[in-house]
Amino acid sequence: xxxTTKNLLNFMSTRLGFVLILLVLYWIKTMWAYTIDFNLDIxxxxxxxxxxxxxxxxxxxxxxxxxxxxxxxxxxxxxxGIYLLLFAWLVxxxxxxxxxxxxxTVNTMLASSxxxxxxxxxALELFRPWDILYLIDFPILAFLFFKKYIRMDDRPFNxxxxxxxxxxxxxxxxxxxxxxxxxxxxxxxxxxxxxxxxRALGLPAFLGYSANQTYTANRERSKAxxxxxxxxxxxIQSHYAxxxxxxxxxxxxxxxxxxxxxxxxxxxxxxxxxxxxKEYEVTPFLNSLxxxxxxxxxxxxxxxxxxxxxxxxxxxxxxxxxxxxxxxxMVNYGGTNTQQAAPFILSKNGDYTSAVFxxxxxxxxxxxxxxxxxxxxxxxxxxxxxxxxxxxxxQYGLNDKIMLKDSIKYLEHLQQPFYAKYITVxxxxxxxxxxxxxxxxxxxxxxxxETINGYFATAxxxxxxxxxLFDYLKESGLYDNSIIVLYGDHFGIxxxxxxxxxPLVGKTSETWSNYDNAMMQRVPYMVVVPGMDKGKIIDTYxxxxxxxxxxxxxxxxxxxxxLQVGQDLLSSQHQQITAFRSSNNFVTPKYTSFNGRTYYxxxxxxxxxxxxTIKKELDEIRNAANTQLKMSDAIQTGDLIRFYKGxxxxxxxxxxxxxxxSMKALLAIEKEKGDQSTSLYSKRGNVSxxxxxxxxxxxxxxxxxxxxxxxxEDSSQEDSSSSSSSSTANP
Length: 731
What we know:
Blueprint: H1 2-12, H2 15-37, H3 44-53, H4 56-64, H5 72-100, H6 106-110, H7 112-115, H8 120-125, H9 137-146, H10 159-183, H11 187-190, H12 194-201, H13 203-223, H14 229-239, E1 255-261, E2 272-275, E3 278-281, H15 284-290, E4 295-302, H16 310-319, H17 329-332, H18 342-348, E5 353-358, H19 367-374, E6 378-380, E7 393-394, E8 397-398, H20 400-411, E9 418-423, H21 450-476, E10 482-488, H22 498-501, H23 514-519, E11 525-528, E12 536-543, H24 547-554, E13 578-579, E14 586-587, E15 591-594, E16 597-600, H25 612-638, H26 662-673, H27 680-683, H28 698-701, H29 703-729
Parallel strand pairs: 1-9, 1-10, 4-12, 5-6, 5-9
Antiparallel strand pairs: 2-3, 4-11, 7-8, 10-11, 13-14, 14-15, 15-16
Organism: Streptococcus sanguinis SK330
Family: Belongs to the LTA synthase family.
GO molecular function: metal ion binding
């Protein structure tokens, strides 16, 4: 044993030995990440083999570059520096994957400055105790060098041998790529999934793949021309779904109030949490809206976001176009691309004033720039609201009830009709930090995942926040002349956590499948039209990209001449083919394809051996879904709207908008309009409505829950006292 150890240390004291030890250490860490952190859906021995070998080629190529260096200290510095980069790339992806169920792309890194604000605490929440294993080799290597068990090798490595290492790594990568293509033909050319690339080729190769994707996207934008519009406009015209005459224009001229339900999934609707032998309705107010005769509620609308998450959802509801396959459209293109978004469209079709209310910093997701390209007149970010501290906010912004109350002093001065969007944040991962004081009280779920446990409590807080807003709208008089649109932006519980959620939704972790993952992508979509009595729950299958044309038609605005790839969900011509952002993933009333598996939508039964008829149907659906994504991408990455002349909207000039001193601007408009001012404040005789907003805490809303607790405590104390007295009297 001693001899073996000595031989190993002697080998590690050579330059080649040091490089190979670093290579093995990186391989071990990668295998750990593949097993513990990533869900690569590895099937069969062949894919296991690919996963085992794929860390070697590129990492050997990179580490082997140090062998060309003659100077001793420079060699060791370079080799260890390359190892640190490989290590950082691996760990970054491990942590990122825990929240996004995806891998870090070049676009993500380029956008990091615009999405990093406020992420500090959440990033810490993503660390796991076992992450220490990623670091354990560093002190060991330091100790071995310090004690001279490993010594620096002053002998330069032979150039031919160095080239041989480079050639070997290139050959290994070629073999790896060949084997990967056997497992998944056209792996890189068709871009099936980031999962497939990592599973087959490894993280270093995925970085190169992502870099090429980013370069290609930028190149496409630079070479796009007006001719590229022809297939797009043909598709838009053929894909157009005519309005449903029963609903077309029923909300014409009304205010539009969007309520963004952060991280809110459809399964929460009507959900009751079992705790301590009791049932707790998680979202009683949203449930009442869902079943109201004044609400068009959709039960089968799916989120279609990818890594851009909230920003992807915003992009879709505002533009009727998808976000990017990699990165965030708002970050990468939002400040530069010509766009015809809802605020701009409504300003030209009804003279709408538009505003966003959001209790986080304006630079998050590049909103303060992207909103100008969308034509938003006002953006009230965290700088307009109560100063944040530990008692009223968390890392993603001001708690919802406080933000909503603070917004009223701005909302009441907007000229009507207005298009206003409220972006809530309190029901945001990690679901453990936004509730304090009197807001604590809704029971936590009891699973081994703290994120899941807190999800229901923060959803309940969001529910009561939305109720407070609705109560204000009714008290102030805005309600009857408005429509309120509520939508969930993306999943709250990631796929990696779903097996722990399974028992709470009537499933088991052992039988949880990709079908279940697909169904968990459902999000609420409700359009509340006060005064309407023909509301209902609609089971049409659709996605967030369909929300804009649906809204336009409700407002009496025909979407036909706009470059939007969604379809009106109320139209009888809606195709009910919902494309997820990843290619080849889709859901229809009949079939669901998700992460490489195909199922019958109504039963969840997997289709393993489809006959020719089913294959043909699936191919047609897959082609339709991928074509929709392709057309949207052509518009987005090619910035094709800059060439479009199919309507008379014109173009947004972002220089026309400033989000500084917005209150001053609102008051100036009121003064200028005088008696013609249509703001709520003016309509009420210059009387503010701020005091009409009330948002009672959980404790105030549920006093009986705490009275019972107090009574139990008092009873317990009395019993204790009685027992003590009895004990004293009868020694």
